[in-house]
């Protein structure tokens, strides 16, 4: 019985791509580092990690339930766990509830403001799952869902809103929306057939790719502004330079008529973007302001 339970858990973790928590988590840690001007209290840091994992896990599992009908129709997604009936909707819903409760518990443990805002954040990230039904700007909805992370981490440490985490949130929003546009190129024809919305489906692949590039330029510019406002030094700016190079390479990999390297652009490179920026910021802290 226990072995069967753990098999189900592993299937769920694979279904929600648990390892992709790495996309937004380093930005939350970066924000916490800036808020504390160093390493936050270990208790605070621990609950930030729990909140991040809980929120993302709930959002991804809920997304699989909401999109089950479309996943079963789309040749690219028919191999997912729910269409294949490796999991039931009930099992996935139970996991979603546990993950959401974990997020709310973590927010409660952090401070009253985080707890008060946590239902709003949860509704926003869960609501993304339905956004493609009615808006081509669903990429920005997803972007802001990940962009909540640096604001939440800052509030966990300082308990108040400030400009730096808001700019970080906007940077994450533009970064995420930009690479989500690239990812959605794979489903343009399917989206048109079933009535789902995306920028490539609405304005065409080439204009959408150019908009993706503009979003990524905006992300880099916002990161530069963050560095200026937060009085960061060359370590951080070197990280921004590496991020800009990775994003430029990511954009070069994908053409409207050649999607063969979308997975490299989407999964591999974007994971490195957030991890390396955080790593370089840690170097900046270690060298100049600890």
Describe this structure in words.
This protein has about 290 residues and is mostly helical. It has one domain (about 30-290): Tetracycline Repressor, domain 2. The chain is about 75% helix and about 0% strand. The protein contains 13 helices and no strands. It has helices spanning about 1-15, 25-35, 40-65, 70-75, 90-110, 110-125, 140-160, 165-185, 190-195, 200-205, 205-230, 235-255, 260-290. The longest helix is centred in the last third of the chain and has 28 residues, at about 260-290. The protein is globular. The N and C termini lie far apart (about 50 Å). The model has no long low-confidence stretch (mean pLDDT about 90).
Which structural category do the helix and sheet elements fall into?
Answer: mainly alpha
Mean of all residue-level pLDDT scores: 92
Query: Percentage of helical residues?
Result: over 70%
CATH class: Mainly Alpha
Classify the beta-strand content into a percent band.
under 5%
| Count of DSSP strands | 0
Question: How widely separated are the two ends?
Answer: 50 Å
> Which architecture would the CATH scheme give at its second level?
Orthogonal Bundle
Q: In one word, what is the shape?
A: globular
CATH topology, by name, is: Tetracycline Repressor, domain 2
Sum up the structure in keywords.
290 residues; mainly alpha; Tetracycline Repressor, domain 2; 13 helices
């Amino acid at each position: 019985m226990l072995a069967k339970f753990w098999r189900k858990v592993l299937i769920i973790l694979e279904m929600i791509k648990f390892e992709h928590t790495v996309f937004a988590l380093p930005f939350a840690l970066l924000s916490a580092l800036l808020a504390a001007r160093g390493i936050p209290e270990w208790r605070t840091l621990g609950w930030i990690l729990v909140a991040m994992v809980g929120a993302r896990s709930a959002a991804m599992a809920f997304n699989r339930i909401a999109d089950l009908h479309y996943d079963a129709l789309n040749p690219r997604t028919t191999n997912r766990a729910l269409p294949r009936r490796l999991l039931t909707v009930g099992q996935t819903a139970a996991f979603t509830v546990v993950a959401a409760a974990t997020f709310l518990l973590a927010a409660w443990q952090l401070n009253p403001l985080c707890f008060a805002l946590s239902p709003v954040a949860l509704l926003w990230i869960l609501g993304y799952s339905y956004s493609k039904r009615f808006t081509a700007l669903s990429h920005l909805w997803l972007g802001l869902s990940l962009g909540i992370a640096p604001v939440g981490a800052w509030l966990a440490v300082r308990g108040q809103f400030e400009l730096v985490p808001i700019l970080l949130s906007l940077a994450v929003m533009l970064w995420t929306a930009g690479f989500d546009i690239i990812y959605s190129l794979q489903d343009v024809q399917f989206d048109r057939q079933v009535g789902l919305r995306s920028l490539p489906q609405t304005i065409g692949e080439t204009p959408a790719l150019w908009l993706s590039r503009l979003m990524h330029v905006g992300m880099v510019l916002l990161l530069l502004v963050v560095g200026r406002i937060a009085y960061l030094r060359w370590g951080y700016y070197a990280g921004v330079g590496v991020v800009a190079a990775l994003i430029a390479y990511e954009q070069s990999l994908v053409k409207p008529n050649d999607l063969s390297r979308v997975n490299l652009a989407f999964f591999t490179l974007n994971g490195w973007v957030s991890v390396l920026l955080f790593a370089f910021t840690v170097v900046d802290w270690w060298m100049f302001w600890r």
